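Design a sequence for this backbone.
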């Protein structure tokens, strides 16, 4: 009865191993979506609060900035204020946030993102490609962590550790930076029921932030304008804002990107869709494929990126479809700021709501390399409204670059061995060994 599963057995196993309770909630979300009994798409779950798996309701919540807040109990802004200080509150919402997003609009455009990936990855990607070409085995999970770690080192200008010889960043250094980001994110692990941190959690998180941000003052002062820190300075961001933004990038963009890279690789192999992708690449751009159309998803009318119905580039299409099916940020939380009715439910100020993004996106069907853009979910895996992922173009460039390397020989791959990470916030493969089939 595999056809009734929303995704592959391997993906379901991976979600379960990450957090069994969360996996149960995500699957229940899909079941509720398809329930013949109907009822409100917004339900109250004891110990969690309001929950929805409806993509349209989820987007309504994310775009309703008057009734819902990222700052209150239940939102990540609440976590960050406890770690970084109350100044974060202005940076996360309201006028300060609007100003920050306006200034940072050009930080991760499609073109800048491609250049960033190329600068941080090209030599390491070439080495990995050579391993596959020579018939060797590649651990795509570890490689993803190393690549993302390298990106963080480049973006934040993390200096070579004292006494470190040889080239920088090396694999060990990059993997260590990734793990540091993971430790920071894991502070949020216990917050499904509440976003109030204990003093010990706050102290741990502050120590990690200090470690990661050690290179920022120098970088912000001296880095050339073609680096992220240099660009922040040129855009008029102060040192405090730049440091806060850096912490955000670190937490928002490391585990999510690495999770997507490993999981989309496995999906392509497990579903056999790699053959469809390779055939499409061989055939060139699909005839009649629609040109990319810019979409506006932010409430200030800014272009939020390109959403391509029937993406002309087969790999780009796989990136979008893979993000839909994996949705690494499985849930998004918000606090209720004012009494409001959504989806027929009455929500009261002070309550919280969890948007089951994974379930909302998965409802459209299983992974298909050539699936067209799904209108209901749009790009909900990157959120919506004014907090729509700032690094979306960078994430897509990262995933696309990895996939192009893996399948550059026009040959299918097979999984030799795999292991899912246990007890993590963002479900991921901790090991994914692949080789030519
Ligand atoms: C596949 C990878 C990624 C996924 C699935 C993802 C997903 C998301 C989602 C769902 C949000 C909205 C959270 C909310 O509304 O509460 C978000 C926000 C954000 N993301 Fe990403 N993200 C990814 C990669 C990245 C990368 C690579 C970066 C930067 C280097 C990044 C930077 C950010 C930032 C700064 C925000 C906060 C934006 C704001 O509050 O205005 N993300 N991301």
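Sequence:
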């Amino acid at each position: 009865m595999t056809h009734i599963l929303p995704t592959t057995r391997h993906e379901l196993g991976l979600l379960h191993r990450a957090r069994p309770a969360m996996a149960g909630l995500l699957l229940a979300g899909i079941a509720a979506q398809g329930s013949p009994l109907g009822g409100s798409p917004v339900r109250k779950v004891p110990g969690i609060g309001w929950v929805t798996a409806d993509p349209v309701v989820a987007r309504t919540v994310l775009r309703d900035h008057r009734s819902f807040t990222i700052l209150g109990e239940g939102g990540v802004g609440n976590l960050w204020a406890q770690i970084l200080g109350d100044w974060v509150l202005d940076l996360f919402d309201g006028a300060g946030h609007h100003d920050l997003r306006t200034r940072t609009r050009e930080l991760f455009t499609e073109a800048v993102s491609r250049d960033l990936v190329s600068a941080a990855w090209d030599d390491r990607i070439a080495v990995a490609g050579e391993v596959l070409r020579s018939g060797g085995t590649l651990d795509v999970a570890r490689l993803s962590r190393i690549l993302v770690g390298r990106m963080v080192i480049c973006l934040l200008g993390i200096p070579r550790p004292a006494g470190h010889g040889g080239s920088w960043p090396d694999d060990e250094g990059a993997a260590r930076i990734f793990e540091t980001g993971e430790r920071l994110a894991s502070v949020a692990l216990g917050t499904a029921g509440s976003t109030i941190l204990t003093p010990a959690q706050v102290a741990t998180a502050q120590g990690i932030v200090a470690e990661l941000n050690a290179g920022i003052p120098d970088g912000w002062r001296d880095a050339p304008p073609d680096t992220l820190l240099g660009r922040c300075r040129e855009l008029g961001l102060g040192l405090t804002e730049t440091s806060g933004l850096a912490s955000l990038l670190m937490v928002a963009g490391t585990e999510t990107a690495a999770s997507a890279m490993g999981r989309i690789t496995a999906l392509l192999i497990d579903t056999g869709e790699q053959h469809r992708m390779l055939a499409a690449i061989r055939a060139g751009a699909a005839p009649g494929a629609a040109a990319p159309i810019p979409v506006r998803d932010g409430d200030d009318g800014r272009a939020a990126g390109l959403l391509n119905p029937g993406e002309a580039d087969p790999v780009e299409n796989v990136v979008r479809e893979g993000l839909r099916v994996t949705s690494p940020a499985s849930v998004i939380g918000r606090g209720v700021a004012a009494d409001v009715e959504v989806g027929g439910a009455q929500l009261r100020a002070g309550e919280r709501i969890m948007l089951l993004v994974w379930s909302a996106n998965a409802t459209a069907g299983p992974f298909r390399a050539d699936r067209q853009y799904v209108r209901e979910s749009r790009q909900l895996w990157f959120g919506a409204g004014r907090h729509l992922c700032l690094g979306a173009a960078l994430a897509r460039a990262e995933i696309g670059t990895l996939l192009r390397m893996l399948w550059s020989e026009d040959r299918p791959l097979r999984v030799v061995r795999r292991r899912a990470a246990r007890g993590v916030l963002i479900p991921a493969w901790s090991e994914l060994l692949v080789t030519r089939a």
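The mean pLDDT is 88.
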